[in-house]
Amino acid sequence: MSTHSQLAADGIIDADGWPNVGAWRFPPPIVRLVADKHTPLTNTAAVISTLLASQDNGVAPGDHPVFVNDGCELKGRIDSCTRGNTLLVGPAFTPDDVVACTETMDCDSVQECMLQEEPCAGRTGCICRYPHQARWKYVVAHEAGHQVQNVAVGAFSQVQYAFDCAGPNCPGVISDFFPGDLVDPPWTTPLCGCQHLKSSNPEHCLQSIERSGPAQGEGIAQFFASRVWNLPESSQCGFAYYKEFLDTQCRTVNPEDCEPATTPDDLPILDLDGNQFVTSLPPVQVDCRNPARWRNQQVCGIMSGAGGLAGDFGTEYDWMGFLYNLNRPSDPNAVAATMDDIWLIYRHGCNFVADQPPSPNPPRCNAQTMVWDAAATAEAGPGGFLQGVQAQFAGDLQRIADVEDLSDSFGVGSDQAP
Question: Which of 143, 202, 326, 400 sits in a 20 to 30 Å window from 178, CA-based?
């Protein structure tokens, strides 16, 4: 009779029970990968397995370490993140202001009423906690997107999310990374910022206006998560957003998942006419197939106050949709850009030199500033996405024109029409 090993209740294989052969432990002939519940480890493994099994997954040769129950600390919170080529999936944690509870309705935002790591279920001694981030499959896939990009492309400069504040009184949320600067530019509107966020990092969000480099960096990760959880042959694309979303109306089918929008000081967020905005609590269903043109439609102030050009700014919302449709076009007659194409576009953009033929194998990016179009920008950078497209598809003028048309459709390029 064959022996076998099973997962423990916490999702860990008990390798200590395996027999020793000299200095090594040897597994039994059968290892049953089953447990009586989902765990952060099994959830993370499921995401990575789905990613690796997806068509044209974009994973380049190299090391891709993954750690569960770790993350990056920001303002007392532990967020999932990527450091270089390493993916860190953040644990459950308790906010500084501990709140006792008897049910999840007693808790703020996406916090849950929990006893240690378990839902409360009517027990005593429960407190409001943020759940383990392995619960959010789009969070894990998003951070894995950063990881895969880093191995395949390298890193272009995308960390400057903060904006200068002019004058003695700075309206809005102060950045934790750049003290004295704001997470949102003072010239933009509430629908193009992150003033409404309570559950997570407010440095950037799906709808926030950012410099083109950071917007592209986060848009790549959102696009990557979208392609992991949507079938490539589908005419639709759904994205479950894991932060609060600000709009003029509730974006969920359950009205209880929406609340009046407030700043961190609990002041109402109003539009120019004094109307109250609404915050939809996550998960928020977002369309990643059809153009939102959020940057252009919401009039994010990119021309009136930014002091740059339209292509200098973008939102990860728009870049997510643009890249998804570039890689998985809705038109069956359109030529799809493979993940290798997209990675090479960025490597060409980072290494662009005017009046020189493109290299067939450009070096990886190394902290270059990424823009949309290096020929029309107020930012300083060697090249942009458009230059990368021109190099990768050199000689195919129609394909280059099609990418430019797609950029206009999604509002990521130089066109600013609503």
Answer: 143
